[in-house]
């Protein structure tokens, strides 16, 4: 049904299995979700995206839960059904409660509204908001 | 230059001034940014949006900085110049460092990429990600 | 500054002039706005888009002002600066008042918010809303 | 299946029931659609959004049908399936005919096309379109 | 289930049949896909969109396969499920291989990421990139 | 004016210079455009994005010009001003003519229109378009 078939571990080439093994180890789980199984049709992209995710989502100045919630906010705004479900699940796994989910969605909704009020009226940016202006 | 003129405090009606006063008191500042000055052409909307912002952005299960960063993430995704500048400034006022801004933008960028990988391949959502499925 | 230069009437080929003449006649005006001057670099597209606009924006089951306001609502949602300014001006020329503009932008803002609430929570469509379901 | 369960009237708290009662009274109907049943998981948002909808969608300088059609135009542009179905149904309830729906969708389609022509060529806004410029 | 019923050839008016006949002849096929069957409820739009598609997608400075792949890239970015499936099928019919599809989706994903990095940081355009600047 | 300052070669750290050197060598040029100068504030992202661009935009099943044109199509759809200018310039450097640019923009415009016609009418995908369905 997807534009490329899902590659199961058993059928996977060694380079794909290597990525699957890393994902399962990093996530302390024994299954691979469909996103990676479809990307596996293009092993270079599978490896590349996994490396990106590892780097970007690692703990840093922002904690992993905050990063997941920003990810969910973007995914909702873009209407990515897959990503909304999968990153909401990931955020729950990192401690997001029901109350936090409701507040997250409320912020996303309001931001989408005021984005259009600002763009609709073509409001000029205040000089004080622009760094080094 | 905007589609409606900016209403300064001096010219404002009492109902508009009442909102301006609340905004300045809540933010402990003595100026009003352009967003509100343009909304003031439509006092019912000015009041309504201010009430929404107060409710949605108040501390709750999520802290105000996390909320601002989600706001920035949505605004970048929608390419709202005004909102990106103003909510980045607000987030900095609440403690966002340079390192946090870089990580925030990196997450937003990556989410926009993987949103299209998932939508592009039309990847079916894993049953485990769907609550009560 | 645009990706293609603006073609003025004086420099224009006969086929471009023919479209310009039709636009000015239809709009009872003596100037051509930049949108058409840039499309004129690709005369087939200039002719095609003008024919589309004439057909779609003609009075029909919806009056021209309602059509212009829907056009503005889409342009704001997509953040098209050119189209927001130009179709707002067109709507004003067809009778849109300040109060109507404010209500239009308020609807656009709210729709953008509730669109994300519905998409964010992944709310299933009620059977009653689906024709012939 | 949605990210939060649907709250039926029978299970609802008094504050949620109060909003449900207002919605049914305002719409002269005896059922509540899924949008509100999911928002009811977050009663403050349920109340807030209902107040927003009442204010923004009330008859004013624009009639309710025109507002619904603008709402549909935004929802199509953002690809909100839920909102496209529900607001089309609402517009039909307010008198939208088949012919009006076809023209509405045609305007939305064309606006999305010319938005990209204008943005694609990076066409500068004509000074005459900018108020007070 | 769609907002307008599908018009089969047998029920179609002569003007709709004329377009269907042209589509089948141009595509050397004996069936009509759902897109056209739904547009057929609005024969003027059916005719107009078919004329647009014929003109825009014809071989020219770009070959038809390149055009189809650009079409797919836009459709993925906008999350149009129908268009992603139908134009991917069209591109395959014109010679797109699995490897080409993977590279196409990879480019679309990356472009969506860097679009947000550029918009997020509000990076000013280099003068050298602007024609005639 | 951007949210982070531009890092010139002279001020850059060795790790940033290393990426700048690679970019200039790969592109056979002696300057660095603003995109990279701003990313340089976050050296890990600078390195990561450059590695992604090198991998994704390399010649493969698709030639580099086709990839650039898909990139432009996405950037126009998302209204990324920076990316539209910079990738149009890149495409011209790889041989895109005026006629090709016009056709590219025409395809992008039309795809954006038909995306909304398909989403607006909620047209079901034909079974024949879905692989392995």
Outline the fold blueprint:
6 copies of one chain form a homohexamer.
Chain A: H1 14-27, H2 34-39, H3 43-57, H4 64-77, H5 81-93, H6 98-121
Helix pairs in contact in A: 1-3, 4-5, 4-6
Helix content of chain A: 55-70%
Under CATH at level 1, the class of the largest domain in chain A stands as Mainly Alpha
SS class of chain A: mainly alpha
- CATH topological fold name of the largest domain in chain A: AhpD-like
Major sheet summary line of chain A = none
CATH architecture of the largest domain in chain A: Up-down Bundle
Runs of chain A in which pLDDT lies below 50 for 5 or more consecutive residues are none
Helical element count of chain A? Answer: 6
What radius of gyration of chain A results from the CA coordinates? Answer: 19 Å
Q: N-to-C terminal Cα separation of chain A, in Å?
A: 51 Å
List how many beta strands of chain A DSSP finds.
0
Share in β-strands of chain A: under 5%
What would you note in describing this structure?
The structure is a homohexamer of 133-residue chains. By secondary structure, the first copy, chain A, is mainly α. The first copy, chain A, folds into 2 domains: 58 residues, AhpD-like, CATH 1.20.1290.10; 75 residues, AhpD-like, CATH 1.20.1290. The first copy, chain A, has 6 helices and no strands. In chain A, helix 1 runs parallel beside helix 3, helix 4 runs antiparallel to helix 5 and helix 4 crosses helix 6. The model of chain A has no long low-confidence stretch (mean pLDDT 97). Chains D and F meet through helix 5 and helix 6 of D and helix 5 and helix 6 of F.
């Amino acid at each position: 049904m997807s534009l490329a078939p899902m590659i199961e571990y058993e059928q996977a080439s060694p380079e794909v299995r290597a990525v699957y093994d890393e994902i399962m180890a990093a996530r302390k789980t024994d299954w691979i979700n469909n996103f990676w199984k479809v990307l596996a049709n293009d092993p270079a992209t599978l490896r590349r995206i996994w490396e990106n995710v590892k780097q970007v989502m690692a703990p840093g100045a922002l904690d992993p839960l905050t990063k997941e919630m920003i990810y969910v906010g973007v995914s909702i705004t873009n209407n990515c059904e897959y990503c909304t479900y999968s990153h909401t699940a990931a955020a729950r796994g990192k401690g997001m409660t029901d109350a936090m989910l409701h507040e997250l969605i409320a912020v996303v909704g309001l931001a989408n509204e005021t984005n259009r009020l600002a763009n609709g009226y073509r409001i000029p940016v205040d000089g004080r908001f622009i760094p080094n202006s």
